[in-house]
Amino acid sequence: MSEVREEVLVISAFVKLDALKWIDQYLSSEVRKKLVLRFRKSDILSGATDYEVVEYANQNGWDIKFDLRLHSKIFIFDQKWFLIGSANTTGSGLSLNRTSNIETVVSGSLDQIDLDKIYSIFDDALSFTPPVLEEMAAELQSSGKESGLGEWQSDLLHLLDVNGQKIIMTKDELLTSPSIYELTQHDKRLLGFNYEEGVDIPICELEEAFRQSKIYKWLLLHLMKKTHSNLYFGELTEMLHSDLAIKDSIRRHEVKNSVINLLKWLTELDVNTMKIDRPNHSQRISLTKYK
Fold first, then answer.
1. Which residues of 74-84 are buried (b: 16+ CB within 10 A; e: fewer)?
2. Helices 203-211 & 252-269, crossing angle to 10 degrees?
3. DSSP letter string over 62-90?
């Protein structure tokens, strides 16, 4: 750390405040600092990660992001040298505590291809915006230490930094099932299910997979951008057709059917962040939260 001259990138599932402060004491003030951590709700409630890391990072020059899927532990120095292994950015991981973990890391230099792959983790990670931090703080306060561990319920986690963001869809990412009770093999694969033919997928698992799907995030993004947080069926169809990567391979009636499927899924799964009604003979979908 003391030899870094330009930039350090830390990618670590768990991050403790004392460990980040320890790193800071060896970095010069001119060094650009980037950090990606996992930041699951269970990580904070279990004490694996400190919630205060975000405020400290923001106040001390770190460009901090998070990815709920993260399991990597990587340190990149001046976009050239690396440490990769099992050590998280914690007291136990970095052997700062009297009783620490046994960790293994390897070091070496990176070529541009590998560097680009690692930096894509940072580029694809989510930013901490004030509304998201507020939602997280509220959830942590309501959870309490005795309520057990859980994961974030906020749909804001799917869409951070919505300003200027655009989600491009492809035909293969659209829902083809007219109902959650008539799932096509395409949609099962799309949502990550490998159940054998004839085996029912639990509704709770289906809803969670749907909330993580690209089409749901696309819809949530457009609703959040609207002044009144609602869209009519015709608007939604036009937006979806406009956001398709390759329009020549799909006809408008297919886009319309995909929107019909999407609204049917929302109704049958009873997704509590949105509601569907029909004023003036046209279906309307509205946000019920995050207005």
1. bbbbebeebeb
2. 130
3. EEEEE-TT---EEEEETTTEEEEES--BS
What is residue 104's DSSP assignment?
Answer: -
- Please, are residues 266 and 285 in contact by the beta-carbon 8 Å criterion? yes
Structure token digits, residue 251: 């006809």
DSSP secondary-structure letter at 4?
Answer: -
Per-chain mean pLDDT for the chain: 87
User: Rounded CA gap, 171 and 63, in Å?
Assistant: 35
* Residue 196 in this model has a pLDDT that exceeds 80: no
**Which residues are paired to 271 by β-bridges?**
none
Cite the beta strand spans of 209-289 per DSSP E. 230-232, 274-277, 284-287
Q: What local confidence, expressed as pLDDT, does residue 91 receive? A: 95
Question: DSSP characters for 164-212?
Answer: T--PPB-GGGS---SSTTS--HHHHHHTT--PPTTPPPPHHHHHHHHHT
Concatenating the DSSP letter of every residue in 247-260 gives: GGGS-HHHHHHHHH
The two tokens of residue 287 are 């946000």
